[in-house]
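# step 3/5: fold
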Amino acid sequence: MKRFSRLAVSLIITFTISLSLFSTYSYGNWWLPFYEDTTHQYIGSGIEHEQILRFTDKGWYNVNILKADIDSPYVTLDLLHNQEGIGVRKKLSELANQNQQVVAAVNGDFFNTQGAASLGPMIHKGQLLTTPFYLPSQMGTFNMTEKEKAFIRHWSLPNITVTNNENQETLLIEAVNKETQSSDITVVYTSAWGKNTPPISPKLSTAVEMIVSNNQILEINPAVSSGNLIPAQGYVIFATGSKADYIQNSFAVGDKVTYHIDSDLDYEELSLALGGGAILVENGIAKEVFSHDITGNHPRTAIGITKGNEILLVTIDGRTASFPGVSQKELAQIMVELGAHSAINLDGGGSTNMILRPVGQESLSIANHLSVGSERNITNGLGIVSTAPKSSLKGLVLKTEDLNVFVNTSRKILVSGYDKNYNPKEINPSQIKWTVDGANGEIKEGVFIPTQPGKVLLTAEYQGVKESLELRVLNAPSALSISPSKITLSPNSSLQLSVKASTMRVIVRL
């Protein structure tokens, strides 16, 4: 972002007159950029990361796009959730690191900020983890079949019942793995929720929990603040009001019961389902009116599906000094421009988060600008999985902290490798052959020491594969600055200082 700040100022001046030429268009139009920088990087076989940095009269847009070819034999998607129990939220990076084959991910559904339950449904490998929002026509769902066919649609509420085999009395279940404050409801908690049912809400005076294991009622107890243990091979039915009375009058310990789900979707055929917000795009057309509309400009996350069954995971930065964010209508239009034939809005704002494994790297890192400065604990996310086998070396990646370096100082050059399937490839630094072209200098053990100002091209060669990095060698610094400029410390405490050197208005991090 630093290298564009001065450019932004000059562009504003340059285009002051030009803006009047576009008076027939809406300001902030995504299709009228004054400046654009786009980068592409494959991070896996059939998996690409694209970043679009675009400047318009409205300001900067920073858009990160993950493209996953799920028709590739080495690419699939994974519903990311806390595998120890969805009753506890975690950071996206923590959810992704549960599966070592995840190479990228975005945050998922809206959730109960006072608890953990997602608003929409969740299915993982054919297993229903949670039911939809009680008004499913408002909220869409992203789905993928076991045959890797993706689609977006509104769900209908499933008909879930528990029947007492002794007297044929049937109890209607209204939700699965959802926290509740309702005074007349039935909710089932399975082992996917966690070890125990959630504590009873302070707003509820009484509730009943019926514990079932291997299709037999083990206990019927009052709900307690610590929650009841959920059997590994069973479930717990939480009930309030008339539903609690019905359980106590129609079910007894020892009775055999049958749990049944009837829905218009065959859940067992779905490898995953992830709830979201409004459907943004249908049949390649951006919607003008939304069933669930979050107004204003905000950070945004969305999922798109192209006509060719490619998956687009998109984040747009917002709520920062540099990036204002976009409206839901703008998000829909952007998804169409990116190639989405259908698309759905996901949780945004402080939840908007994209992580990925940069090519040549072993670990995941954050790709977007987090509006709250750090990852938020969330209920779920969507991960892109690469199962591509390891292969021979394809390329090298050269990185350093700053592309400017002062003469007679040093700069560490980090070298990583990747194979033909873009898996990280281990590099032996002692076997790298270095050449220096341009300004004089030498490299010792990956550290470049320049002896002459000017441009320099550093080239690393490893097992016949080459990659270069250009640096600018500057004259000795004319000024130093230390941050913070004022220090107040208590005894035995410490503070990290940042030192920057400058020469001819070029600032270099030391």
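# step 4/5: annotate
The longest strand covers residues 59-69.
# step 5/5: archive (pending)
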